[in-house]
Structures are given as structure tokens and as C-alpha cells.
Write a structure and sequence with these properties.
Length: 246
């Protein structure tokens, strides 16, 4: 119990720092060094990402998408625009076995430390996918659990809004707080359950195990759907029929 309180004091400080940070920033993207798809890249990172390696690692983009945008149908996560240090740390965790994944562990183990860092840098410099959510739902109703948790959290449980750490619209903040916008719902759901059951390493200050422990299965499904979907207008053709019918 005492441990929980200390962690929450810490995380409240973190959340507060980001609220102040956001208040002074304009727009939805708080990163200033925002790269483009054509930013020159390290040849090693580019080669691993787009060609794979002779040791038998397939091109990362074969699963994570040509621009690192992820694959919603398969539940493969978006890598584009996540912090370099975050991606590097995840690859290290797959390699040392602390983050379980039957798919990623063997690939991470086949890469040198240098290779992991180079490919982490490659994906971190790609822009957020076009299809990712850009803004939060304004004036969420309490009955809209996903939007409410994302933008308000749940005060009586000491649960900050996801946006306080993950940024407006879940765009990600700096190197430590990865983007949620545009992540497949199945991926977000799996990660939150992994923290709930102690299967994913706690990460910085064990912030996410604390968050996940306060979410019911229904909360998890709702917030995963929120971040995986585009709000409001639909830029893709798929849903245009229903949009224009309204
Ligand atoms: C066969 C498909 C496949 C290939 C190829 C693949 N990945 Fe993955 N990757 C996955 C899956 C599935 C996950 C989700 C693992 C989990 O359940 O946590 C993942 C997760 C990740 C993550 C964690 C993302 C996050 O947001 O925490 C990183 C980083 C990553 N992969 C990097 C790479 C890199 C770099 C390569 C190329 C060397 C690569 N992947 C190749 C399927 C793949
Ligand atoms: C107090 C800060 C904080 C809050 C609030 C927070 N997160 Fe996180 N979240 C983090 C950190 C830090 C990480 C990176 C963990 C790591 O490095 O292993 C993370 C990672 C994640 C990931 C993994 C992303 C990936 O690419 O694998 C998911 C999913 C996630 N958070 C969902 C949520 C949701 C949903 C909420 C709101 C209900 C939320 N988070 C609220 C700090 C926070």
C-alpha cells in the first residue's frame, strides 16, 4: 500500500509536469524535431527495416508496415514516430527475454546492440501514420468510457487521463511516453492485460502497471478502441458511405 502511494505521488508529479508542458505548447504535436519519411537515415537502420538481415531477420516493414504504421488487422504495432529510446529499450527487453513475445524475441536476439539502436532510430524518425488519431474528443460524456478515460481519467481512483502522459490525442510525448494513436486495438488491449498480469516489464517508475490495475476489461476495450480509431470525420474511403448518410 505504502509503495502504491509513493508511486502515485511520483506519477502525479510526472502528469503535472506534462500538463504544464502542454499548456505552453501549441498544436497537437509537442515534438519539435518532427521528421519526415524522407529524412536521411542511417544505412544500417534502413537496411534492417526494409531488407532484413542475412542472419534470417525478415524486413521489419513486412509486419510493421511500409512506413512503420503497423497492421491493424494483424495487431502488429505502429513503430513510426515512437521515441528512439523507447523503441531501443523494447528491443533490448525482447532480446534479454524480460518482455515476452514469441515473434519478437528471436528477431531481437539476432540483432547486435548497434543494429537494434539503428533500427530504433530509423522508425522513430518516420512520421506518425496519416490514419492515426490527431486530436482528442472534445467534451467527452462520462458514458463514453474510452474518451472519458483518455481525456479525464478517474479521479476517485487516482487514475490520471491517458493524455496527461501520452499527450493530446495519444500522440506520444518525448522518448519515454509512446504514442497510442493509431495503435491496433488488439495490441493496446494485449499490452494492458500484460501489465495487469505482470507479463510485461513495469517500465519507467512502474507507471503502467498502476494504470492497468485500475482498468476493468470493459475499460480496456473502450480505451483501446478510442486510440485505434479516427475521431469525427473519416479520411479513408471505407466509412464514407455511412458518414455522408448522416
Ligand atoms: C512476423 C512479424 C514481425 C516482424 C517481421 C517484426 N515484428 Fe516487431 N512486433 C511484432 C509483433 C506481433 C509485436 C507485438 C509483440 C507483443 O505482443 O508485445 C511486435 C512488437 C515490436 C516492438 C514493440 C513496439 C512497442 O510499441 O512497444 C518493436 C520495437 C518492434 N516490434 C520492432 C521490430 C523491428 C525493429 C523489426 C525488424 C528487425 C520487427 N519488429 C520485425 C511482429 C513483427
Ligand atoms: C502517469 C503516466 C501514464 C499514464 C497516466 C498513462 N500511461 Fe501508458 N505509458 C506510460 C509509460 C511511461 C509507458 C512506457 C512503458 C515502458 O516503457 O515500458 C506507457 C506505455 C503504454 C502502452 C504501451 C504502448 C506500446 O507501444 O507498447 C499502452 C498501450 C499504454 N501506455 C496505454 C495507456 C492508457 C490506455 C492509459 C490511460 C488509461 C495510459 N497508458 C495512461 C505512462 C502513462
Amino acid at each position: 500500500m505504502r509503495r502504491t502511494i509513493t508511486l502515485w505521488a511520483l506519477s502525479a508529479a510526472v502528469a503535472f509536469a506534462f500538463v504544464s508542458h502542454e499548456a505552453s505548447a501549441t498544436g497537437t504535436d509537442t515534438r519539435t524535431d518532427k521528421p519526415t519519411d524522407t529524412t536521411p537515415q542511417s544505412p544500417l537502420g534502413w537496411t534492417i527495416a526494409t531488407r532484413g538481415t542475412a542472419k534470417g531477420i525478415p524486413a521489419c516493414i513486412s509486419c510493421h508496415g511500409a512506413h512503420g504504421e503497423g497492421n491493424a488487422a494483424a495487431g502488429f504495432p505502429r513503430l513510426a514516430g515512437a521515441g528512439e529510446d523507447y523503441l531501443d529499450a523494447q528491443l533490448a527487453a525482447f532480446a534479454d527475454g524480460s518482455r515476452p513475445s514469441t515473434v519478437m524475441q528471436p528477431f531481437a536476439r539476432l540483432m547486435s546492440k548497434e543494429g537494434r539502436t539503428a533500427v530504433a532510430r530509423y522508425f522513430s524518425r518516420l512520421p506518425a501514420p496519416e490514419t492515426a488519431r490527431r486530436t482528442d474528443t472534445a467534451d467527452a460524456a462520462p458514458s463514453d468510457t474510452g474518451a472519458w478515460l483518455a481525456t479525464r481519467g478517474r479521479g476517485q481512483q487516482g487514475l490520471p487521463a491517458c493524455a496527461q502522459c501520452h499527450g493530446p490525442g495519444g500522440a506520444g510525448v518525448g522518448s519515454a511516453f509512446p504514442p497510442l494513436a493509431g495503435q491496433p486495438a488488439a495490441y493496446i488491449t494485449a499490452q494492458l492485460h500484460a501489465w495487469k498480469t505482470g507479463k510485461r516489464p513495469p517500465g519507467p517508475m512502474a507507471l503502467m502497471p498502476n494504470v492497468a490495475s485500475k482498468l476493468s476489461d470493459a475499460d480496456i476495450d473502450a480505451v483501446a478502441r478510442y486510440y485505434s480509431e479516427q475521431p469525427g470525420e473519416q479520411p479513408t474511403q471505407q466509412a464514407s458511405a455511412t458518414t455522408s448518410a448522416k
